[in-house]
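Go through this fold for my students:
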Amino acid sequence: MEATLRRRALTAVAPVAWGANYYVTHQFLPADRPLYGAALRALPAGLVLLAVCRQRPRGAWWWRSAVLGLLNVSVFFVLVYAASQLLPTSIASTVMALSPLAMMLIAWALVAERPGTAHLAGAAIGLAGVCLMLLTGADGVSVPGILASAAAMLVSSFGHILTKRWSAGTDVLASTAWQLTAGGLFLLPVAAAVEGPPPALSPTALLAFGYVTLIATALAFVAWFTGLRHLPAGTVGLIGLLNPLTGVLLGTAVAGEVLTGRQLCGLVLVLAGVVLGRPARTEVRKPTPASARRPATSPPPAARPCTSRPTPPGA
C-alpha cells in the first residue's frame, strides 16, 4: 500500500508540471514558432536523459522509439504548443480532462483493461461537461485551439497506452530518453524547413524553455511512464486530472482569466465524470492448489493381517 501511494505521488508530478506548462508556454514563449517550440522542448530533454542512462535502443526498440517519439513527442508537443497559444490556460487544460476516459477506452482495446458501466457513464458526463465548458460563446475560445487540444489529448492517450504495452522489461529512463530524442530529431528539420532560422530568445524565454525542457518534459515524462509501468491505466489517467486543475488554478489566479458560471458548471461535470469513471477496485485472489482445497481426512485404517484359523479335523 505504501509503495502504491509513493508511485501515485511520483506520477502526480507529471500532470502538475504539464498544467503549469500551459501557462508558461502561453505567457513566455514565442507564439508563432510551434515547431521550434516543440523541438526545443523535446531534443534537449532527450539528450539530458540519454546522458544519464547511457543506453541505446536495441532490437525492436529502434522502431518502437520512432513510433512513440512521433506520437508522444513530435505530434503531441506541436499540438499542445498551438493549443497553449490559441486558448486561455484554463480552457486549454480543461479539454485534457477527457484524457483519463480516453485512456481507459484505448486500454480496453490494447491491453485488455475493460471499463465497466461506471467508466462509460463517466465518459458521457465528462463529454457533456466539456461541451458546456466550451460551447458558451465566451471570449478566447477558438475552434482551431479546441481542435488542437482535443487532437493532442487523443494522440497522447493512444501513445501512452502503447508505451504501457511495449515497455515491459525495459528501463523507464532509457525508453523515455529514446522517445524524446527521436521526437526532437523528427521535429528539428521540419522546423528549419517550415519556420526558417531558430527564433531569437530573450533571457525570460530561455528560463521558460529551461522549465519546459527539464521539469515539464524530462522529469514529468519519466514520472508519468513510471506510473504507467506500475499502475493501471485508469488510475494513471485519473491522476492526470491534476493537469486541468493546475491549469485552471494558474489561469484564474495568476493569468487573471475569468470563468463564467456555465463554464464552472462544465468544469464540475468534467471532474464528476472522471471521478465516476474511476477504475473499480477488485480483489485478486491467488488460485488455491487443489491439494489445499481438499478436506483433510483421516488416513485409511491399517490393513489387518489375514490370519486363518486351522480347521479342526472332522469338521
